[in-house]
Amino acid sequence: MKSLALFNNKGGVGKTTMTFNLGHMLARQGREVVLIDCDPQCNLSALALTEGELEEVFASDASMGRTVAACVERVRIGNGELYKPALLELAEHLSILPGDLTLSRFEGKLAKAWPEVFSTDAESAVFVTTAIERLAEGLAIEHDVDVVLFDVGPSLGALNRAVLLACDAVLIPLAPDLFSLRGLENVGEAMRDWKDDWGQARIRIQQAQTRTAGRRRDGRGAPREHAMEPIGYVLQQHLAREEVPLKAYSRWAEQIPAYYRRFVLGQESEPAPGQAADPHCLGHLRHFASLVPLAQAARKPIFDLKHADGVLGTQFQLVERARAEFKALAQKVLQRLDAA
Ligand SMILES: Nc1ncnc2c1ncn2[C@@H]1O[C@H](COP(=O)(O)OP(=O)(O)OP(=O)(O)O)[C@@H](O)[C@H]1O
Ligand SMILES: [Mg+2]
């Protein structure tokens, strides 16, 4: 199993829309995919499920494990392990574990646990910090999952840190604008800090294990380390209406390769190619305009929209473009994930 998050500190860059569409496309390539909605705003869940379905999910008891928040509830209140997740099937090879606003409560617990993972008695803090990771690993074993795709909000807070620590790979959606470039600076630094800090914590945990004959008190080994490897970025051409980005945006787009190398990969002095030739760019997604609300209403990926969903005339060409763009993106993501 490979775990992947689409992440950027800049909000509204299309993370959720891309996660939903990419998830469908990866499933269509024959991979077993689970979407996990780790954004307490639940936008992915609202894209994928009807209000009635969500109402039923939220009305269920935590022990039924029907949301991420329900699954981690016992860990949050400190009286047990994760509840087993109950997935909802969206399509062949594709399921979702919905989010819930109450996941914000778990963020407080994670924030409190983080400084404690560096202490000599870090066991319960590590247990909390790795809850999301255990959730994903459990799914992989129980449901034979190939790809876990996390949707997260744009914050650099404790919840996203815990999710990213559970990720083998990170893909960065961004727009050709000033704020996306600023977001790249933050994302790169935060990811490096989280990885370094977690590495330090793991060393301490392993040292403590050596002292206690190789076992933590709860009988677990050291928490698994995930590479959190940046596998590239996707340029969202939300505001560009032509094949070539508008002049105003191309000036930002051309700075992305250098920013990505410097701030995300930490390669200060690497020469950067032009944006169009950048191998770290896994795709350009165009402005899908009125298809986006149609897809939201139909709870379908953009590339599955039909006449019955309200698609008319030349919009069918855009549906086909969406299919081609997401197919190409899914193939590149799979290549990078397989190598990660
Ligand atoms: N390719 C696209 N073409 C047109 N509109 C899009 C496209 N992708 C996303 N949008 C629209 O842009 C807005 C933001 O998208 P989305 O919610 O996916 O971003 P996000 O990065 O997940 O936001 P947040 O940071 O709030 O989680 C939404 O209204 C969405 O419908
Ligand atoms: Mg979102």
Written description of the protein model:
It is a single chain. The longest helix has 34 residues, at 178-211. The mean pLDDT is 92. Helix content is 47%, strand content 13%. The protein has one domain (2-339): P-loop containing nucleotide triphosphate hydrolases (Rossmann fold), CATH 3.40.50. The chain is globular, with a radius of gyration of 20 Å. It has an eight-stranded mixed sheet, sandwiched between helices. The chain starts with a strand and ends with a helix. By secondary structure, it is α/β, with parallel strands linked by helices. The protein binds adenosine-5'-triphosphate and magnesium ion. The site of adenosine-5'-triphosphate has 18 residues, from helix 1.
The best one-word shape is globular
- Overall radius of gyration: 20 Å
Largest sheet: 8 strands, mixed
Ions, cofactors and other ligands present here are:
adenosine-5'-triphosphate, magnesium ion
Task: For the largest sheet, list the strands in their spatial order.
Answer: 3-4-2-5-1-6-7-8
How many E strands? Answer: 8
How much helical structure, as a percent, in the residues? 40-55%
The CATH architecture can be given as 3-Layer(aba) Sandwich
| Overall number of structural domains | 1
What's the CATH C level?
Answer: Alpha Beta
